[in-house]
Specification:
Elements (H helix, E strand, L loop, with lengths): L1 H5 L8 H27 L4 H5 L1 H4 L34 H6 L1 E3 L15 E3 L14 E3 L4 E7 L7 E8 L5 H8 L29 E10 L10 E2 L4 E4 L11 E9 L16 H11 L5 E3 L2 H10 L2
Antiparallel strand pairs: 1-2, 2-9, 3-8, 4-5, 4-7, 5-6, 6-9, 9-10
The structure holds zinc ion (ZN).
Length: 301
Amino acid sequence: MRQIAAIHPKAGYSPILLVLVMGLAVLFTSGCQQVAAEPVEAPAIKPAITAAPVELPTEEPALVVPTLPEPTAIPVLSSAVCSPLEGLTLSDVTSIKTNSLKLPSPGKDDGHHGIDYSFWTFRGMDTIEGMGINSVLDGIVAGKVGNRFPYGYMVIIETPLEMLPPGLRSQLESIQPQPVQDMSNSPLSCPAISSTDFSSSGRSLYLLYAHMLEEVKLNPGDQVACGEAIGQVGNSGDSSNAHLHFEARVGPSGFRFTEMAHYLNDSSDTERLNYCAWRISGVFQLVDPQIIIDAGASNSQ
Ligand SMILES: [Zn+2]
């Protein structure tokens, strides 16, 4: 009871004592506030520490990538497809086709490796002999051969696949290169051919025009345009009547030769090597020339 009465001012206690008691009460309560405030202040310091690592990556954009000039694409102009015979359209030549492609048996030299064009009479003409032969595509002369068996006077013109009209190009690019066949034991007297003999990064279409009337005036490396005159229809080589033998193959780019022959007593190793590489090795893969004629005919309509 005395303790309760001690804090009552009406109980007759002195004002000094009352001030002291109240002062102590203020001290205690303010002390409590200080203690209670401490945990609140501590987390306030943390962000200053955690902020430091964030600054480092912001320095890095020193990755100043030099602005390189845009690569300028080299324009490749695609060739048109022209008729192989002077004065005849692509449709006309298909109407005088006398012999189609007949694929050879693997490793053999049979079949018929191209298309033959000939006629007895056509639009008032009584022979095809002497008719002008034109290049079917833009290209480069890959080789020419004199009057040797079996092609007679002939020329081969190379056109890189990227120069072909888009539809034809994609058709021929789908032809996968084959491994080179081992011909060392071939009954065809073929010299051994190594795949390294024909290594090339690019692929080209090669068109061969055979049994021509006379020696071709062009030389390997010469550029030829679509529709440009390259010779005349003849009856040279393994041919019984005047006709144009038109042959097409896809193979490694840059192949050049000046000799090609076979089945002759006097054929040289180089002539037989080129003949076997061209026809039997698998390096140059046969294509039906009709797809080239058709590609040109559909574009001109
Ligand atoms: Zn033929």
